[in-house]
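Pipeline run #58 for the internal structure catalog. This entry was flagged by the ingest filter as a single-chain record with no existing model, so it goes straight to prediction. Upstream metadata was stripped on purpose; only the residue string is passed forward. Reviewer on rotation: M.T. Logging verbosity set to normal.
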Amino acid sequence: MTQRVIHVGCGGWGAMWCGDFLPKNVADDSIEVVAAVDSDPEALTNAREGLGLPESRCYTDAETAFSSHDADFTTIVVPPAARKPLVESALAHGLDLLTEKPIAPTLTEAVEIAEMVEAAGAKMAVTMSHRFDRDKTTLRRRLRSPADGPLDYLVMRFTQRYRQRDEWVAGRPYEMDHPLLVEGGVHHLDILASLAGAPCERLYARTWNPDHSEFAGDAQALVTMTFENGVEATYEGATTNAVALNGWENEYVRAECRDATLELDARELTRYPYDPDAAPRHNASGPPEGESLALDSGEKWTNAWLIEQFCDWVDGGERMATHVEANLQSMALIEAAMVSSERGQPVAVQELLADARTQ
């Protein structure tokens, strides 16, 4: 059944929703966009051009749009600090919600939103787009199969050169306390948890801002994680390096399994099998010859695919993996990394989340 959608947030990243993610689902009748909202009238041009909406269905006020149209759900693509009032308004009008990450500026507020959604009996999910990109999905499915034996540990690298002001997202992250964690780590730690296949038990983080950086807050991070199933992980995140080695959508991930090493590098997946009869490589200067693995095929990836998944859930299908309650785990990872860096000691992630629920 085609779901009727009111889209909120047409500028910045919202322009991609208007020009790419939503149109792909309009084209196959998954959705019908009945209205669009943005506080900036100029940003509504993206809705008119990308979604073909007439001016009469473009609004600068979400409450007016919610009151004026019969819809099934709303997609909300606004900064986290502006999200809670929109969630409250949408729930008051009986709408389900699909929102961008993170749920809210703080873990406590994210818990409040999740509780509001539960009390309303509504559905809400968060678009963790990187986790559902083609290459990460292929690796995750591979790790869920028995082909390479149990997973031991994971390594992830994201390195960018955004050290000069305005090289990243029109300057917004340069004023944040933790730009790397909030903008990048929210995806990357979430990916590691999804690959590990279990909630994170303990996290230790070191974050800092080098002298050559124009960020106000910590733009570099080294994180170690222990998951409840015994899998370990390390994360290197950087936004002020001299060069970008593995930037957005090209992140490096290595999964060390019992029977093979799986390496994802710039969207290419390689398998290096364990050979018990091979001679030791004491002076190895690089990996042995590996087997290139094809990435999974699909018509939609990232947010376009997540919109389709949400439509299926709203229509009575399986609950999305990124439903709001599950996504609190991703929020908890970022909060734990901040707290760990500030305290200089490991943080018990599930205890942190439990404390947020009691506040």
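catalog note: Residues 3-129+302-326 form a domain with the Rossmann fold fold (CATH 3.40.50.720).
catalog note: The chain has a mean pLDDT of 96.
status: ready for reviewer M.T.
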